Amino acid sequence: MAEPSSAALNQLRDKIDQADKELLEVLRRRLDLVAEVGTIKHAEGLPIYAPKREANMLAKRRAEAESMGISPQLIEDLLRRMMRESYVSEKDVGFKRINPELGSVVVIGGGGKLGGLFVHLFQLSGYDVHIIEQHDWDNAPALLADAGIVVVSVPIDVTEQVIAQLPPLPKECLLVDLTSIKQAPLAAMLKAHSGPVLGLHPMFGPDVSSLAKQVVVVCHGRGQEKYQWLLDQITIWGARLHEAAATEHDQAMQLVQAMRHFTAFVYGMHLKREHADIEQLLQFSSPIYRLELAMVGRLFAQDASLYADIIFSQPDSLVRARHYLDRYQQALELLESGDKQGFNKTFADVADWFGDFAQQFQHESANMLMMANDSRSN
C-alpha cells in the first residue's frame, strides 16, 4: 500500500533530502580534516586518541546544541559515531615508529586473527615484521637471530610449550605474550629468556577497527626501561594501558572472561535444548533482551576452541562455576517457596553492593539499548 502524500509533504521531503546532502558534504569535509590531523600526529608521534580534547569538544558541542534548541545527547551521539570513523581514518595514515633502532619484529602466530592485528599495527608503524607459524618452526632460529622483539600470539593451551621451545634469543630482545592469562606465560618467559620480558593482554577482539579507547593490560616482567618504547607505541596506536600484577589480572579474568563466557555458553545451550525459536524471540524481545541475546549469539559465531581455552585454562574456573551454581540454587529456592520478600531483600543487598555503579551502568546501557533498537529491521 502506497504511503499517502501531498504536494506540501513532498516539498518538505525534498528540502530534507537537500539538507541531508549538505550534511554529507560537511561530513566529507570533516573526514578530510581528520586525515590531515592524522598526518600531523603520525609525524609528531602523538596518540590518535586524546581524551581531554575529546571531552572538552563534546562539552562545548553539547552546550552549543542546547542553545540552539537541539538535544545535547543527539549531537553527542552523532559526534561519537563520527569520531569512531575518524579514528579508523587516522589509523590508516600510519603511526610514528617509536624505536627506529629496533631489530625485526617477529610475531609467532602472526597468521592468526589477533597476531595478524598486531602484525598490521607494527607494519603501519614502519617496523620490519616477520611471522612464524607452526610450519615455519624449522626456520625460527634464522628469523629470530636479529629480532628486536618477539611476540607470542598462539592458543592458550600451547603458549607455555611454544615459549619453552624458543631458540636462544638475542640478549636485548624483548619477549612478549598476548594471552588472556598471565601468571603461567609470564613465568615461562622469564625462565626461557634472560632479557626483557613483558606480559600483555589486549582486552578486545581482533575485529576492532581501531585501538582508540581499547584497553591493554600490562603485567611487568623484567627490564621495564628496555620495553617502555613498546608501551609508548601502543599508546600512540590509541589504546589505554592498565598495569596489574599477573595474579591480580588472572583473578579478575575468572569473572570478566571465564565465568561470563561460560554463562553465555550455558544460556545458549539452554535455548537450544528448549527448542527456542530465535526468530520468534526477536519479534517479542525488548531492546535489553535483544542485546543480551546478541551477546550470546556473538559467542557462538566465533571459534569454539578460543572460548574453550579461555574457560578451561583459568585454574579456578571449576570452583567459580560451582559457586555460581550455588547462588543459582539459592535464587531458585526463593522462587520455589514463593518468597518475594526474600527476593526483594536479596535484590536490595546486591543493589547496595553495586552502589553508584548501578546508576552509571544504567546510563551507559541506555545508549546501547537505543542503538540496539535503532538497528532493528522489520
From TrEMBL:
One of its GO terms (molecular function) is NAD+ binding. Residues 103-365 form the Prephenate/arogenate dehydrogenase domain. One of its GO terms (cellular component) is cytoplasm. It catalyses: chorismate = prephenate; prephenate + NAD(+) = 3-(4-hydroxyphenyl)pyruvate + CO2 + NADH. The keyword Lyase does not apply. SMART domains: CM_2. GO terms for biological process: chorismate metabolic process; tyrosine biosynthetic process. Keywords: Amino-acid biosynthesis, Aromatic amino acid biosynthesis, Cytoplasm, Isomerase, Multifunctional enzyme, NAD, Oxidoreductase, Tyrosine biosynthesis. It is found in: Cytoplasm. The keyword NAD applies. Residues 3-94 form the Chorismate mutase domain. It comes from the Bacteria. Pathway: Metabolic intermediate biosynthesis; prephenate biosynthesis; prephenate from chorismate: step 1/1; Amino-acid biosynthesis; L-tyrosine biosynthesis; (4-hydroxyphenyl)pyruvate from prephenate (NAD(+) route): step 1/1. In the C-terminal section; belongs to the prephenate/arogenate dehydrogenase family. PANTHER family: PREPHENATE DEHYDROGENASE, PREPHENATE DEHYDROGENASE [NADP(+)]. NCBIfam families: CM_T, PRK11199.1. This is T-protein. It comes from Ferrimonas lipolytica.
